[in-house]
């Protein structure tokens, strides 16, 4: 049976990339009536050091971000990873299945650990095995993510295949990444070759979900572009990464294809298009940031939602972990 799982790290600050690449898609998949499970992956966040008070705050803020973006805890299961111990338990099994070489090939590992891999945490190296466990402890079949997570989903399939092969079972499913829509890779507003990211030192490079209307408008007005008018077809954007990024964002907000957007705005200069995009972004994002702030006023309620979500999650994870232990030959499972 199809089942959707995805997660976001509570490492502080949600960007427009997280919204268009993930959160917006999460609520759409929920509203298609699918069986959806969404997780604040706090155990992933601590693979680089997090201040404990900030981690607590960021986990609650991220939960508010999910709900404000349309994820309904009455329809989807919404919880934090550490509250469901089977994620970490299955991750250990997968640490014994996955190979060092697989981890070494992960581009996120190479980017994050950089030249100083000796000093990176062991958890950062093993990160993708925990991610595989997140997904497979639910036997999830579909994982909506941005383009940057594609390699990790491929590794999840490798882990499932090797486990099934090594133990002679057909137990874990082959998960499909769901990388759809016009904004699967939102780029920096300052550099069209870099991904929009919360860790970019320049705040002008990104739109934060908590930015106010003036800040959003200013960042879009100052976004790097080229001097040409917008083309009338998508192929006219091929060598124009900054222009393409802004059109992609517009298309994602309005649920259109890039060609549909260009049919409307082709021929316009950026001086005209940028204010249109800014108005659209403000109209779509300000209700979300207002709702996030409102939800964050009642952290006890957020904690209750997370606790209930964890209980619902464990109804699925406990039997799957038990069966995994039996397959592996662990006594007492
Ligand atoms: P994270 O927390 O970095 O990002 C959360 C989601 O946002 C997407 N995203 C983007 N999409 C488009 N453009 C961007 N600029 C952009 N930046 C971020 C990411 O692709 C992601 O979908 N490893 C994951 C978290 C994770 C997970 C999982 C995801 C842990 N376990 C299991 C799916 C299933 C991560 O670090 O995402």
**What's the total count of β strands?**
5
Return the average pLDDT rounded to an integer: 97
Radius of gyration: 21 Å
Strand order, largest beta sheet = 1-2-3
Query: Proportion of β residues?
Result: 5-15%
- Which geometry do the CA atoms define? globular
CATH architecture of the largest domain, please?
3-Layer(aba) Sandwich
Unreliable spans are: none
CATH superfamily of the largest domain, by name, is: HUPs
Number of helical segments with 4 or more residues:
13
Largest sheet: 3 strands, parallel
Please give the CATH class of the largest domain: Alpha Beta
* Chemical compounds bound to the protein: tryptophanyl-5'AMP
Number of domains: 2
Distance between the termini: 25 Å
